[in-house]
Amino acid sequence: xxxxxxxxxxxxxxxxxxxxxxxxxxxxxxxxxxxxxxxxxxxxxxxxxxxxxxxxxxxxxxxxxxxxxxxxxxxxxxxxxxxxxxxxxxxxxxxxxxxxxxxxxxxxxxxxxxxxxxxxxxxxxxxxxxxxxxxxxxxxxxxxxxxxxxxxxxxxxxxxxxxxxxxxxxxxxxxxx
Length: 177
Ligand SMILES: [Zn+2]
Ligand SMILES: [Zn+2]
Hints:
Radius of gyration: 28 Å
Strand order of the largest sheet: 2-5-6-7-8
Bound molecules: zinc ion
Order of helices and strands: EHEEEEEEEEHH
Strand content: 25-35%
Largest sheet: 5 strands, mixed
Shape: elongated
Number of strands: 9
Helix content: 10-25%
């Protein structure tokens, strides 16, 4: 999505609205798919503040993540602000700066940079996602399988139970004395 800045470059203080929708390409992020079924909505403004162009905008839309536990795709709403400083390539002296070349810049590139910061590290379809059965691979949100799972057969728990019986045994004896 290319934005033309020629109309505000001539005059310091000039500003224009940036209202558009952009379609981002699906990518693989941290080994998982990141998909966009609908365009994202961008609303904001671009101001010529002399040495730089200032982009202030709000991004809204939905993204399709993959649940890290059950591997199902799920949709999540996104809304975040963008504050970007744009300079000519020859003026760029900060890693956080973006560039405009000639009379234009690529808005998608800026949206991507900010969007990736919004992605949670733990992506989960629901708070109580039960994940996949480690034995048969069934999605435990959708069906109950009859595998005996390691968690339910926890050897540590069994040990604790045995210790508890011993403790009870000795405390009972203690009372008898
Ligand atoms: Zn899940
Ligand atoms: Zn199972």
